[in-house]
Amino acid sequence: MSHEQYKILSKRFGRRDAHKLAVYEAEGGYAALRKALQQGREKVIEEVKEAGLRGRGGAGFPTGVKWGFVPKDAETVYFMVNADESEPGTFKDRFLMDYDPHLVLEGSIISSYAVRASLCVIYIRGEFGWLIDRMQAAVDEAYAKGYLGKDILGSGYDLQVIVHKGAGAYICGEETGLINSVTGRKGQPSIKPPFPAVQGFLDKPTVVNNVESVAAVPHIVTNGAAEYRKFGTEKSAGTKLFSVSGPVRNPGVHEIPLGLPFKEFFHDWLGGMADGEKLKAVIVGGSSVPVLTADEAMGIDLDYESCGAAGTMLGSGGMIIIPERCDMVELIQVLMHFYWDESCGQCTPCREGTGWLHKLVRKLRRGEGTAEDLALIEKVCEGMAGLTICPLSDAAVMPMRSFLQKFRSEFEALVAGEDQDGPQTRWAREYRS
Amino acid sequence: MAQEQTMVTVKIDGQELQFPAGTLLFDACREARGEALPHFCYHPDLPVAGVCRLCQVEVEGMPKLTIACNTTVRDGMVVHTRSERVRKASQQILEMHLINHPVDCPICDQAGECGLQDQYMNYGLYESEVEKRDKVHKAKAQVIGPHVILDKERCVLCSRCVRFCDTVTGTSELGIFQRGDRAEIGIAPGKELSNAYSLNTVDICPVGALTSRDFRFKKRVWLLKSTRTVCHGCATGCSVRVDHEGDRIYRLKPELNREVNGPWMCDQGRLTYRSVHSEKRLAAPLLRRDGGQVEVPWAEALAAVKEAGAPGAWIASPQQTLEELALFAALAGDAPRSGGVSTAGRGEGDAILIDADKTPNRAALDWTGLPQHDAGALIGLIKGTKGAVLVYGGDPAAEAEGFLAAVGGRPLIYLGTHRNATSEAAAVVLPVSAWAERDGLLVNRQGRVQASRRAVARPEQAREDWRLLADWLRESGAEDAPAGLPALRRWVAERVPAVSGLDLNALPAAGAVPAGAASGAGGER
Hints:
The structure holds two protein chains of two kinds.
Chain A: H1 21-26, H2 31-39, H3 41-51, H4 63-68, E1 78-83, H5 92-99, H6 101-114, E2 119-124, H7 129-145, E3 160-165, H8 175-183, E4 206-210, H9 211-228, E5 239-245, E6 252-257, E7 260-261, H10 262-269, E8 279-283, E9 292-293, H11 294-298, E10 301-302, H12 304-309, E11 318-323, H13 328-342, H14 348-365, H15 371-382, H16 392-406, H17 408-415, H18 423-432
Parallel strand pairs in A: 1-2, 1-4, 2-3, 5-11
Antiparallel strand pairs in A: 5-6, 7-10, 8-9, 8-11
Chain B: E1 7-12, E2 15-20, H1 25-33, E3 56-59, E4 66-67, E5 78-80, H2 84-99, H3 115-124, E6 142-143, E7 148-150, H4 160-167, E8 174-177, E9 184-187, H5 199-204, E10 210-212, E11 225-230, E12 239-245, E13 248-254, H6 267-270, E14 286-289, E15 292-295, H7 298-307, E16 313-315, H8 322-332, E17 337-338, H9 362-367, H10 375-383, E18 389-392, H11 396-399, H12 403-407, E19 412-416, H13 421-425, E20 428-431, E21 440-443, E22 449-452, H14 465-475, H15 485-495
Parallel strand pairs in B: 1-5, 16-17, 16-18, 18-19, 19-20
Antiparallel strand pairs in B: 1-2, 3-4, 3-5, 6-7, 7-10, 8-9, 11-12, 12-13, 14-15, 14-20, 21-22
Helix pairs in contact in B: 2-3, 8-14, 8-15
């Protein structure tokens, strides 16, 4: 398969015993760590900046630049790996931790070294029980082999790693929420400034990186920035994991070079729609990004810039393929229920707005909606967008607005009482109301 | 302080203004606008939360609106607080605050001084579009402590009360539990809101979520008149506001005084108003007759005082004002005198506001030459004199063991406000004014002179202390006995060296510490 060449992060996916240290070492594991410690942290930072690695959690912020925000004179620095993967549609990090925990760990150690962290916390969402065990086993193996602890590989660098279990809140995937949760506070974002890179965990500089971001670091250290840039575009360098759900022939996690046209990805990698299914819409990067119609999706490339130009975002790569038979209003109700449930509740527009949107959509689905309610949805969205501490409010607004705008006829049909529900939808309506 | 602060220039709503670097944009906007930006969560004495999102302003060069409470001014910053974009955002966010609010203003104590009502009138004025049946309902009328009651439904989750208990008292009784629109203020398991400052949470609650159990359902706030005065509960002398309708006091609230109490006061102090309306108030002059005390007209009581002859021992108390003590000392002349029992009025203090000295004016006793005595010394003082014993305030009969025995069969004259052991043993009782019924100066533990003001009228039969004393002074032949309050204060400034440098008729709102007074004042704590 020609697609094999792009497998940098996913080469051990699906292989028996891939998670074991012996397997990882036999394939060159921890050589990158050795090299990084020999080269010095400046070189590591430089390579990662040069490689153009961007945060894979969703925001796409350049990883090397983020590392550079840590004050140079800071005595204590913390590094945290964001494994609170909870964006609906996203399930790439769990594959990384499941099949290649040592890759994640090696990347974490190198990243911690780069930012001069003495403690690294791997924050894993609470529902990932077995992954916590798996990461902990990898950490234990690494300690035993001297990849962790005091004087790592004779370099004089000390690092402790803690695997921390989250308690099941989506918002703890936001980095300040994550830091608060690790601290033992209620998991909710903090106002910025101060930024975590200056004042984070225990008021010390703290860098939080996504699992996939750190997993890319060993490859960059081993092979250099130029090799990493072999795939991808100028501004969206390297490869990216996409976790694809929906009725395509090959759903699952795929590693692709950034910049790949969606059309090619859809046909050649995903194998197109399953029998009898027709493509209606695509959520490219996790449930929080604006939805694209089938036509729009066919016109984009899978990189940060092209997605942005099309009015959506690459996000986390949690791609949801929506078939023609799917009721968009039902789908948005599921999403609005999610954001209403997960809003931490501290900022008023999000706390109240997510609930209001959920109720309005529910009202439509009950057949009690009016045309005014559609206008009201737009108004509520306006009062929520860009006005809160963290992006959760916007994360609810973006799908809501785009669903309503692009699939308006389905909403209007409900208003007019012309709903043609299938049995599944009717059941869902009864069940949720 | 001599170091010059860097100033930055900020343009707010077209007005160019200068502020010291580091000034909060919120404060800068307040100065430029002449009124604060709409807000619920911001409080100058609490850490910034930034959650109500109401104080959004437009800063040129920034793509999104930004909250002024978490932004510091930068040189060259151009800010718009009244643009259409800001106005719309404020209105929308306010509407969000109200969608799940029960709007039960008719039965809410906060009505009339409610942030939601005020902001709605200033920034809202829209038609509500939320369906009543869709509102989120939460628990109402939960008792969460000895003084405070919580209505979770009215709460806007500004977190001020939580931050107060976390940072001012350090007791952390409160928290926000649950998330999203189910989030609610709650009390930590096993705790109650029983810190000594719990009623401050009611003050800073911008809505009717936290209300005072003491004040609840007693009075509509718009019927209340306010008088700024000084709390008499301890030697701290917090600036307070007496809220009263007619001559009835309904509550005390702290008044901002950066030199003394900031924006806070203690719960104990807040409830001191009850003593003014106590059943133990002395309503009329009393004379001892046939083994009991009978009410008599003032003339009769005053005649009895005269008949008792010039008192041999003069005993004042730290409950009296500086003016009263100065007059009392002048009346005593060379006779043995005391400022009362030194061990009385002592209790527990803390490091926040509450002083161990539970009297409001002990420092003034020294200033007016009325030294206090311990019980033994006071009894010795009485035994060394002859004739009547005049007690002004306090309750030495209860505070000094053997006091009544020392007085023996000599006439005991009591000037006071409340029935107590001393008044009940007295031959003559003259009712005077309680703290909220008279003007006067108090010297707090810092040596700060502050003006206490009359808020309500005294009981019909009670006299105004200083006039009674000044009358006696005049009768005793003093030609300079003052006739009005301003004259009285000039007279005090001439007589009391400690305050000679102050204009007692024009003290600043925060009071004033006379030069050299701070260190020696207040005595032991």
